[in-house]
Amino acid sequence: MDLGKGLRQALAKLSGRYVDETAVTELVKDLQRVLIANDVNVRFVLEWTKKIKERTLSEKPIPGVGLREHVVKVVYEELEKFMGQAHEPSLAKQRILLLGLFGVGKSTSAGKIARYYSSKGLKVILVGADVHRPAARAQLQQLADQAHVAFFTLETNDAVAIATAARKLSDQYDVVILDSAGRSAFDEELARELKDVASVFEPDSSFLVVSADAGQVAGKQAKQFHDAVGLTGVLITKMDGSGKGGGALSSVVESGSRICFLGSGEKLQDLRAFDPHAFAASLLGFPDLKELLETAKRVSEEENLEKAWNDGKLDYATFLSQLKAFKKMGPLKSVMQMMGAHDLPDDVMNQSEKKLKAFESAVLSMTLAERNNPALMKESSRQARVAKGAGMKESDVRELVQQFEKTQKMLKDVKKNKGLLNKLSQQFGGKLGG
Ligand SMILES: Nc1nc2c(ncn2[C@@H]2O[C@H](COP(=O)(O)OP(=O)(O)OP(=O)(O)O)[C@@H](O)[C@H]2O)c(=O)[nH]1
Ligand SMILES: [Mg+2]
User: Fold this and answer.
1) CATH 3.40.50.300: which residues of the chain?
2) Ligand 1 pocket, mutate which of 266, 267, 270, 272 (most atoms under 8 A from CB)
3) What is the mean pLDDT of residues 219-248?
4) How far is CA 98 from the centre of its chain?
5) Ligand 1 pocket check: which of 107, 108, 137 to mutate, most ligand atoms within 8 Å of Cβ?
6) Digit-coded pLDDT (tens) for 14-62
7) Quick one: CATH architecture of 94-274?
8) Residue of 76, 35, 37 lying closest to 337 (CA atoms)
9) Strand partners, 127
């Protein structure tokens, strides 16, 4: 199972249940299972989850944030902390050396980095110095064409001669990127060749390219290459297609190397500078967790909607204002994810976003009297009028009315309401889930 999905499912189990020590212990076990299945080092998994358990149980949630969200926040923060620093690619004049074993994605990554810098307005040239594989330089030239950058090589089998000439290209270009030859395994000969190339090319940055498929072996590779030729950081490719991304990431961080870029596809735009904040957010399925938590708090304060719920007075007007508040929190998908409804198929998501919109236009087509006195909407002549006003089918309006009545009934059944968001998540989350 992919790491993000596994983590999200583990967290989603918390929704709708009382979060206590038993629930946290269970979560920790789930997290451990997911991480180990993704090839993450066992010692790290145990240390990391221990910290999560300690923090979750000892810290008080910030006001306005439920216990479940608090747990999610702790997991998120610990993930972010572990991942190390963000990499901000320098925009200065520079030379970049790419190294790594066979087929890991060096040349593709060279093209991606070239495209990145070129899009920043810098003058970029790609240098083909893989003198071992016959078609390597032609492939790099194609990548240069795709990225709309210059290309350079020499018709020789002497990589050092090419690197020497490439060093001089800095007179004419802002960014010179040298693509070196791969090997099936790290060995003395490769180390020597890379050292020779580096000594004449004098790179500002040397990035080791590893594939996510390598799993924990990525960390070992990072250490070998670092000890032999020195590294600025690591670029992990194929994050899109591997179940071992977690192992590759964590082992590289543990080896003491920095993660600088992530590649997540074959196209030139599939490259991101590494940002632990964004990375943790995307793994856990939150576009921006901090913002979402803050918005959730602000919305409920501003609108004081809990009061309406606690009073047990649900009419179309209240319901509409709740929907609007709900919408303010961002796309339905993010909100649902915050509520723990993860990995729902897109068509389900889109459909219910559509439903929400339909509901809104229906309510807007109601008279004030109808909004405040929901019983009126049972009349089919009124339903027909609203349908016409909202540009909907009568059957759709009828369905919405039925849905509203269900919600109303549910509200009456619940004596003490814990909060608007919980209620809404039950109404919509439950419906979507089932
Ligand atoms: N899915 C996916 N495929 C990738 C990614 N990066 C590279 N590839 C693919 O991996 C294969 C090898 O990529 P190359 O860039 O040729 O790898 P290389 O390290 O230069 O290979 P050698 O020069 O033979 O050592 C190609 O089919 C690429 O399209 C990535 O991030 N995701
Ligand atoms: Mg190559």
Assistant:
1) 94-274
2) 266
3) 91
4) 26
5) 108
6) 766 677 888 899 999 999 998 888 888 888 899 999 999 999 989 877 6
7) 3-Layer(aba) Sandwich (3.40)
8) 76
9) 152, 178
